[in-house]
Structure formats: C-alpha cells, structure tokens
Specification:
292 residues; 0% strand; mainly alpha
Amino acid sequence: MYKSVEDLIDTATARRKPVSDLMIEQEMQTTGLSRDEVWKKMERNLEVMHSAVEKGSNAGGVYSKTGLTGGDAAKIKEYRETHHSLSGDAVMTAVQGAIATNEVNAAMGIICATPTAGSSGTLPGILFMLKKRINLSHEQEVRFLFTAGAYGLVIANNACIAGASGGCQAEVGSASAMGAAAAVEVAGGTPEESGNALAIAMANLEGLVCDPVAGLVEVPCVKRNAIGATNALVAADMALAGCTSRIPVDEVISAMNEVGHSMSSALRETGQGGLAGTKTGKMIRHRLFHEV
C-alpha cells in the first residue's frame, strides 16, 4: 500500500514502471486475483463509462425525475457539431462526456463512481476526449483508469473524497487531480510530472464547497464535473510543459483535507448553504419536498 504520492512516484521511478503497473500489482496482491482478472474488472468499469457517455449524449439525452437536470450533454454535442466553440472542440468534448455521465447518474442510470457518484463524470470526460485527440488504444484507456485509481487511493487514505467530509473539493477536486495525473501518464509524461499535475489540479479547486440544491446530486454537481475535467486537462498540459507545483503534492493533499474539515457543515453536502441556501434553492427544495 502506497502511503503517499511521493512514495508512489519514487517506486515507479526506481522500478522504471508506470504507475498503472504498480496499481495492477497492488490489486493482485490485495484481492488475490490474477492479472487477467484484475484487468477484466477494470475493463468493465471502462464499459460502464462508455455506455453512460453515449446514453447521456445521444437521442436528446436523459432527464432526471425532478426535472432539474438533463439534456445538456446532447445540446453540447449539437453545438460542437454546428458551431466553432469558443474554448475549442477538445475542451467541449471533455465537457460533453463529463456532463453526460452525471446526467445519467441524476437520471438513476448506471455509472462508475470515480471516486464518487457526484464526481463520476470528470474522469470519463477527460479520458474519452484523450481517446479521440491522441488516439488512445484500448489498453491505454484501461491503464488510464488504473493510474487514476492509484492516485485516488492515496488521496482517500490521506485526506477525503466525500463531499460530506470535505466539500466538493474532495469530490470533483480529487477526481480532477486523479484525471490530471493519469492524463500525463498516457501522454508519455513522467511520474514526477503526474505528481505536479495532481498538485496543480487539486490546488486550483481548493476550497470548493458542496452545496447541492435540495440535497440532490444535480445542481450544481452536474456542471461542476465539466470544470473538473477541463481543470485536469489544463493542469496536465502545464505539468507536461515543465511547470511545477511550489507546494509538494502530498502537502497539497493535506491542505485540501484541512480546508475541508474547517468548512461549515452548511457547505458539506447538507443542502443548507451556498447555492442550496439561496432564495431559489430553497424554493426548489420546497417544491420537491414541501420543506422550508
């Protein structure tokens, strides 16, 4: 079990192995499964992600029972196909995948929690854009998920990944950091560059609160995954360009944890503060649950 990102990076560098290989080996040791069995389990996660993006993006999209979310991924797909987007097609492809996945989640569909249901769109948004942009093979897609999982495991063991514990910085922030690190590896970067990407991505979203309107994982959760995906890509590019985090990556993780614990409970998934506490947020809650 790797106790820190530094430990993970040092081991990968010393053994001249990608972090994805280290994670596969750890899963084999922890579960007692063969390499092929571990690989197939991750392939299943990849299949679920693919299905969610397709379902959320096509045929007008999907809609939640509350009517608060739905159809935006399909709108973005049409926009991409008929307009010159301001932020570029790569960015909007990532946004489409992220939102599609979280709309499927809000509509009670099947998703892969990475690391949570509320942040489930961030990694697919990153991954499927990269698949298209740099022609990732199936093996590279699976390895991306193992790499993200390795860094996510360290974050979970040293900080938190739940909005109730640390705000949305712990959910979308962690997912964005995991995705940034994994994006660097599949793009040919070093473990050290992955660590810098993780630190930059996490620091960028430090302090992000969890304020779901009516206590539901819809508003603003769905669209925050779009920010998580794009933030990860920016952080990955910065790291690949040679930019570094002045604060060591493990200290960034510790800082996120400290900030999360210092947040008011109203800003940690209770649906009381932030956007949930606005006049309109309260009206929506009352309409859905007849509560003040």
